[in-house]
Write a structure and sequence with these properties.
By secondary structure, this protein is α/β, with parallel strands linked by helices. The protein is built from 22 helices and 22 strands. One of its GO terms (biological process) is chemotaxis.
Length: about 750
């Protein structure tokens, strides 16, 4: 358990930050006048200070912060008027808070008493009573304690990071140029070796030829010398000798170039190390110990537990590990949600724990570890655990999986369904714990941090949530791959491993692989982005992703390596490109697009809480499988049906449709007729021959409007026939109305 002195240390770190915001903000109001955003900033800082002070039981700071918060809220709501007199009184209150915080710095406690008149003054302002005239005397702000820290404006740091982004681009450029240089030197070297060999071979042949033919070089100078006494050279020999000498010179030049390249490469590597050091140092500036957040939350959670008649001890390890401020700020919501769920639904009552042979006091362990550039947070409670059979039952009831499929998936995958919007194994809905909203908000928050979350549980013993997030969001670690001669990137943090396609030849045909006793569905990147037939791939790689216990595979043409880069947003003009996280500039100066793997597999994840498109209250009224080789038709129909609260699966041909139906339960199939691989007629025929789909409604959606085509469809078992182009009214009549009758 954290001691009081350590808790005070974390409070003071946060209090100093808040007071600096308050001092600078009020000074800005005095010089520039009323500004809503400044007052909002002051309100947030006061609110944070109030909460921090209340946790460590500094009641005087809590009271003054609360009153100050009320003043700022009234200002924002227009309930009181803004004037210089008001700002004067606000500065006086801040001055009192600064004095109290200074006392805590020096003695570890509040010593001064709050004058009754101060509270009455604030109450009078809020109640719009007469405010005493401002006395013309100076207001002395006690300085915050001098520390070894130097405060730097966040804007300055952000500007440095922007420059760092450009430096990283230059670093990548140098790396690419280095590779090009080595390639050029290697090419020149190979060419030089070939030239030297050709000249040497030709020279040997010439000497042999002239000797065999008995040719003699006629020169009056040689009359008195035998062949052994004087070497004979004609113009060919002289030419060959010159060429050999030139070639030797070229070889020496190439060797010198090699040495130069190696030295240059050494300098590049040294520069790269310095840039990495600079990058790490700059990121360190924004780093905050995660314990500052966890200890604050632990005290709040203990109080919450007392409110519902429970006691818990929270053990925190790894509190000294630091994370980037944007990550720190975004972790509050998911962690508090997990902890509240633990005390509300995990930790049992005293009586229940005693019956189970447990201690009366519940235990929650938070273990933080650093793994490379990632932070792993394990939150474990020794409570009831999660009933996996109940999770299965609810998943089947909600139509998330078929009852037959539950016997094929692992416990890890079954537990992943607790992150589905609205999914809960509890019959109670508690406002404070947020159980009614489900853990999908935790999943969403972690996904926004480019992280993952997994859950493991043993009934009546324990539940563990494992969160893995990047230590910093400033620089992204990216895997670079190519498809159809274009380069793309994807975040490394979701990648579990990379396999070669040669080891899984059935993957292209079956769209799945059996790896480590798991069936992993796979997609082919070139089919998704270029509408090409992926079966033509001869070689390639399978990138295996782990999405909170659910594995998916992506087949790509080639793996090119990895890079560190700053990923930029597209901006509002391209914000519709949801399959991308953004872009970065490669070393060659061209943009590389960063794929969002969650969106890539969105079709299969809509029920696992990974899609941002699904709101917490969204409940599907039915499910439809749309089969069409035209992506525009699929997307248009998907948009129309989803707007009607229908769950939509899509497939581009009959084979893909059959595979989807093996894994998912649907209420209707809407299919085109003319498609590659397997056309619509064959799909209808196969479905009607399968007892499971004998009564499944099938609507044909085609550009063929002849009676012949229509009769054939009905003959095979179609229930409806729509001719393209279609409108929403037709869709409502043929699809929505029919679904209501099911």
């Amino acid at each position: 358990m954290i001691n009081k002195s350590e808790l005070i240390k974390y409070f003071l770190l946060e209090a100093d930050d808040c007071l600096n915001v308050l001092v600078e903000g009020t000074e800005e109001l005095e010089t520039k006048g009323y500004n809503k955003s400044t007052i909002e900033s002051l309100f947030r800082a006061t609110h944070t200070l109030k909460g921090s002070a209340s946790i460590v039981k500094f009641n005087k700071i809590t009271t003054l912060s609360h009153k100050l918060e009320d003043l700022f809220e009234a200002l924002l709501n227009g309930e009181i008027n803004y004037d210089n007199s008001l700002i004067y009184h606000i500065r006086n209150v801040i001055n009192l808070i600064v004095a109290l915080v200074n006392e805590v710095h020096e003695a570890g406690e509040e010593k001064s008493e709050i004058e009754k008149e101060v509270i009455e003054l604030i109450d009078n302002i809020l109640n719009k009573k007469e405010i005493p005239a401002v006395q013309q005397k100076s207001v002395i702000f006690d300085a915050l304690p001098v520390t070894d820290n130097v405060r730097v404006e966040l804007k300055v740091i952000e500007n440095i990071f922007a420059s760092l982004s450009e430096v990283l681009v230059q670093k990548n450029t140098i790396t690419d140029k280095e590779k090009e240089l080595f390639h050029i030197v290697e090419e020149i070297s190979n060419s030089g070796k070939k030239l030297l060999k050709e000249i040497t071979d030709f020279s040997d042949m010439y000497w042999l030829s002239t000797y065999e033919r008995g040719q003699k070089v006629i020169d009056s100078f040689f009359v008195d010398f035998s062949d052994l006494e004087f070497d004979r050279y004609d113009e060919y020999h002289i030419f060959l000798r010159k060429i050999q000498e030139i070639t030797n010179d070229i070889t020496e030049g190439i060797n010198s170039l090699f040495i130069f390249s190696e030295n240059l490469s050494s300098h590049f590597k040294s520069l790269g190390r310095e840039i990495n050091y600079l990058k790490d140092s700059l990121i360190e500036i924004r780093m905050i110990p995660i314990g500052k957040l966890l200890h604050r939350l632990s005290e709040a959670i203990k109080e919450n537990a007392k409110d519902i008649g429970k006691t818990v001890e929270i053990d925190i390890k790894g509190a000294e590990i630091k994370i980037d401020k944007p990550v720190f700020d975004s972790l509050y919501e998911p962690i508090i949600h997990i902890l509240r769920n633990a005390i509300q639904h995990g930790i049992e009552s005293f009586e229940e724990r005693i019956k189970k042979g447990k201690e009366q006091t519940g235990h929650i362990k938070i273990d933080v570890k650093k793994e490379g550039k990632y932070i792993v947070i394990a939150i474990k409670d020794d409570g009831r655990g999660i009933d996996i059979d109940k999770v299965k039952e609810i998943a089947v009831q909600k139509g998330l999986i078929s009852s037959e499929y539950t016997s094929f998936i692992s416990e890890e995958e079954i537990l992943s369904y607790i992150f589905v919007p609205g999914f809960s194994t509890s019959d109670e809905i508690d406002f404070q714990s947020g159980r009614g909203m489900g853990l999908n908000i935790v999943k969403t928050a972690i996904s926004k941090l480019k992280g993952t979350i997994e859950v493991f549980s043993e009934l009546d013993k324990e539940t563990t949530f494992i969160i893995k997030i990047p230590q910093s969001l400033t620089i992204s670690n990216l895997l670079i791959f190519s498809s159809h001669n274009l380069d793309f990137a994807i975040p490394i943090n979701y990648i579990e491993e990379i396999l070669t396609l040669e080891d899984f030849p059935q993957a292209l045909e079956e769209r799945s692989i059996n790896h480590k006793n798991r069936i992993i569905p796979v997609k082919i990147f070139s089919e998704i982005f270029f509408s090409l037939n992926g079966k033509a791939l001869q070689k390639g790689y399978i990138i295996v992703f782990n999405f909170s216990g659910i594995r998916k595979g992506l087949i790509v043409d080639e793996i090119l390596g990895h890079e560190e880069a700053t990923v930029h947003n597209f901006g509002k003009f391209l914000e519709g490109l949801t399959q991308y996280l953004g872009y970065f500039i490669s070393g060659k100066g061209s943009p590389r697009y960063v794929i969002d793997p969650l969106k890539l597999f969105e079709e299969e994840f809509i029920f696992t809480g990974l899609s941002d498109k699904i709101t917490e209250s969204f409940i599907y009224s039915g499910s439809v499988l749309v089969v069409d080789d035209s992506i525009s038709v699929r997307k248009t129909l998907q948009s129309v049906l989803e707007a009607k609260k229908l769950r939509v699966y899509t497939a581009k041909d009959g084979v893909e449709a059959l595979n989807l139906l093996e894994r998912n339960k649907v209420d209707m199939v809407v299919t085109d007729l003319e498609m590659p691989v397997m056309h619509g007629y064959e799909l209808i025929s196969r479905l009607r021959k399968d007892a499971r789909f004998k009564n499944l409604p099938i609507i044909v959606l085609t550009s063929r409007g002849t009676k012949k085509h229509e009769e054939k469809a009905f003959e095979l078992g179609a229930d409806g026939y729509i001719v393209k182009p279609f409108d929403e009214k037709t869709i409502e009549e043929e699809i929505l109305d029919r679904l209501k009758l099911l």
